[in-house]
Write a structure and sequence with these properties.
Blueprint lengths: L25 H9 L10 H17 L2 H18 L2 H4 L2 E3 L7 E3 L2 H13 L2 H9 L18 H10 L24
Antiparallel strand pairs: 1-2
Helix pairs in contact: 2-7, 3-5, 3-7
């Protein structure tokens, strides 16, 4: 099983700064993710949405530095999953297990967010065994993408305008997509 390297520079492109004053530990990041209360799936959409709202409220009630740190860690977690061995898998609809579809860029991003939303154990299993990603390919973790932005706005009254060290958009991890 793959585990997450706690060092700030793990997986960072070399030109980026390895340490920020509001660095959030992976342990704290996963504690916050656990507030969501489970994986996104069709049957629990309402529960997942409520979990994302709860996480946003908790972040907004805490220090702004924690919101910034959460946004950074979340972007990093998504970036680490932005790899060819995940993105070229086909989406499998649980309602039609014999059929599959290619993932769109947005679908791939939302599926990566679903892996993060599933929690640390699921995330680390997927990192270590890429074939497990397919189980998340038809889930949408899209609401999780906006949690830190909404929390920041609630806490500060300002829109989120912070660039993270990692670009989490699909196919932005050049090391993960060597053939692009």
């Amino acid at each position: 099983m793959s585990t997450i390297d706690e060092s700030p520079a793990a997986g960072l492109p070399p030109q980026l700064s390895p340490q920020l004053s509001w660095e959030l530990s992976w342990e704290r990041f996963w504690q916050l993710i656990d507030l969501i209360g489970g994986e996104p799936a069709v049957a629990v959409c309402a529960t997942f949405g409520a979990g994302c709202e709860r996480l946003s409220e908790v972040l907004a009630a805490g220090p702004v530095e924690e919101i910034l740190g959460f946004g950074e860690r979340f972007a990093e977690a998504l970036y680490r999953l932005d790899r060819e061995e995940f993105g070229t898998q086909r989406a499998v609809d649980p309602g039609y297990p014999g059929e599959s579809l290619p993932l769109s860029d947005d679908g791939f991003l939302y599926a990566r967010a679903a892996v993060v939303a599933a929690g640390r154990a699921a995330y680390e299993r997927v990192l270590g065994e890429p074939e497990l990603f397919a189980a998340h390919s038809f889930r949408s973790g899209e609401p999780l993408l906006y949690v830190h932005e909404e929390a920041y706005e609630a806490a500060t009254g300002e829109e989120w305008d912070h660039a993270t060290r990692y670009n989490y958009e699909s196919c932005s991890n050049r090391e993960g997509w060597p053939t692009l």
